[in-house]
């Protein structure tokens, strides 16, 4: 499958080569570009599995490897400086191409490095996780964390092309697969009622490799659909951050959750607050909660989680205030994003209500 991801903000078309086995065509697509050398930018987990494969595809081409440690802890300024120096030590030029090879964190870090070294270094993106293939590889803005805030040092750049090969998903462990499934469920809640219905009728126990690849493809196409709609309805992009206010803060407070796990908690808490604020039928909240549970995704942060720190984090990020409370994004009907109007996206929760619900959250789930 061939797609062109058009980024109106950068006025650039980015080719996307999507299908099983597309990785094997890397050399063919590279030959369409001019370059003097190649740097593979990846993490130790990915290289532990695929180093020999990618070097075999690059046989006869001058290349080197820059490796980072896997995980969110690499998204910091110290790693940024260290890996920038390492890339520069390879005597790069404006003709150098970098192969960005890995999951979301690899992409987050490289985006910033790419935009700052020599003003911009060209790169191609080969995402290897469910979440990266179906979501982050299409973000035009990515970055790293500070000690207090998440993704606050960022840059806007685009790859030369993207290769999405679903065969990479075969080597993911169950937790990494479900990390992507959470994002897929979020997309289904927003814009695909049929897919959400599928999730309610299936569960993580019986997930096949074919299911994983099909779900990743569906989620990727849903993300592209939202991006295309955003060119017409600028507000629609905002709804992609359904539950974002909460899950973003959860990720900063605790290192125990993967991104998708924070997303499931954030969406369930947001749905609960919506139910309490509008006195809605509880069915909507229960259906979403039960669906995440069936897919082994958390809806509660655990007994040791610091809820006071969560509220402090939200205040620190100017999301929560004693005067205005907090504004959260809403979904009125599952899979019916086209029915939303710009004025319907947000609802407000008073400060005292929000903090009380957060502190007693577990009791609402029982």
Structure, explained:
- It is a single chain.
- By secondary structure, this protein is α/β, with parallel strands linked by helices.
- The protein has 2 domains: 2-171, Rossmann fold, CATH 3.40.50; 174-365, Up-down Bundle (Dehydroquinate synthase-like, alpha domain).
- Helices cover 45% and strands 16% of the residues.
- The protein has helices at residues 26-30, 44-57, 77-88, 104-116, 130-134, 174-191, 193-201, 209-230, 244-253, 259-278, 283-294, 307-316, 351-359, 361-365, and strands at residues 2-7, 12-18, 38-43, 63-68, 97-102, 122-127, 141-144, 153-156, 162-164, 320-321, 325-329, 346-349.
- The protein has a 4-stranded parallel sheet with strand order 4-3-5-6, with helices on both faces.
- The longest helix is centred in the middle third of the chain and has 22 residues, at 209-230.
- The chain is globular and about 65 Å long.
- It starts with a strand and ends with a helix.
- The model is unreliable at 7-11 (pLDDT under 50).
CATH architecture of the largest domain: Up-down Bundle
In CATH terms, what is the fold-level topology of the largest domain? Dehydroquinate synthase-like, alpha domain
Q: SSE order in H/E notation?
A: EEHEHEHEHEHEEEHHHHHHHEEEHH
Structural class category: alpha/beta
Q: What is the name of the CATH superfamily of the largest domain?
A: Dehydroquinate synthase-like - alpha domain
Strand arrangement within the widest β-sheet reads 4-3-5-6
Q: What's the number of helices?
A: 14
Q: Major sheet: size, sense and barrel closure?
A: 4 strands, parallel
Roughly how much helix do the residues carry, as a percent range? 40-55%
Radius of gyration: 21 Å
How many structural domains are formed by the residues? Answer: 2
Mean pLDDT: 88
CATH top-level class of the largest domain: Mainly Alpha
User: pLDDT under 50 segments (min length 5)?
Assistant: 7-11
Euclidean distance between termini CA atoms? 45 Å
Overall 3D form: globular
Tell me what portion of residues adopts beta-strand conformation. 15-25%
Number of E-type strands: 12
């Amino acid at each position: 499958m061939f797609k062109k991801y058009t980024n109106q903000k950068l006025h650039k078309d980015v080719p996307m080569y999507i299908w099983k086995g597309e990785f094997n065509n890397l050399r063919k697509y590279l030959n369409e570009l001019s370059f003097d050398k190649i740097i593979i930018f990846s993490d130790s987990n990915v290289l532990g599995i695929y180093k020999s494969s990618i070097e075999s595809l690059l046989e006869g081409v001058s290349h080197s490897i820059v490796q980072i440690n896997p995980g969110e802890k690499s998204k910091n300024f110290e790693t940024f400086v260290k890996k920038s120096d390492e890339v520069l030590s390879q005597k790069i030029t404006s003709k150098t191409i970098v192969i960005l090879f890995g999951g979301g964190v690899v992409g987050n870090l490289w985006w910033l490095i790419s935009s700052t070294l020599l003003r911009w270094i060209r790169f191609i993106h080969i995402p290897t996780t469910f979440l990266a293939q179906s979501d982050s590889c299409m973000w035009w803005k990515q970055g790293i964390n500070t000690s207090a805030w998440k993704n606050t040092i960022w840059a806007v750049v685009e790859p030369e092309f993207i290769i999405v090969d679903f065969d990479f998903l075969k080597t993911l462990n169950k937790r990494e697969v479900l990390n992507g499934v959470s994002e897929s469920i979020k997309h289904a809640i927003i814009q695909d009622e049929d897919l959400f219905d599928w999730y309610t009728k299936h569960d993580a126990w019986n997930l096949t490799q074919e299911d994983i690849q099909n779900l990743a493809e569906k989620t990727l196409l849903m993300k592209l659909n939202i991006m295309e709609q955003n060119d017409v309805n600028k507000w629609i992009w905002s709804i992609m951050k359904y539950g974002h206010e909460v899950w973003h803060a959860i990720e900063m407070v605790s290192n125990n959750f993967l991104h998708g796990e924070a997303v499931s908690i954030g969406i369930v808490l947001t749905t609960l607050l919506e139910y309490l604020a509008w006195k809605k039928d509880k069915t909507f909240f229960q259906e979403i909660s039960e669906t995440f549970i069936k897919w082994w995704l958390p809806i509660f942060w655990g007994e040791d989680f610091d809820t006071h720190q969560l509220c402090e984090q939200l205040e620190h990020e100017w999301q929560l205030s004693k005067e205005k409370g907090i504004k959260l994004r809403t979904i009125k009907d599952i899979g019916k994003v086209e029915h939303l109007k710009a004025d319907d996206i947000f609802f407000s929760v008073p400060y005292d209500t929000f903090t009380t619900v957060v502190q007693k959250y577990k009791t609402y789930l029982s």
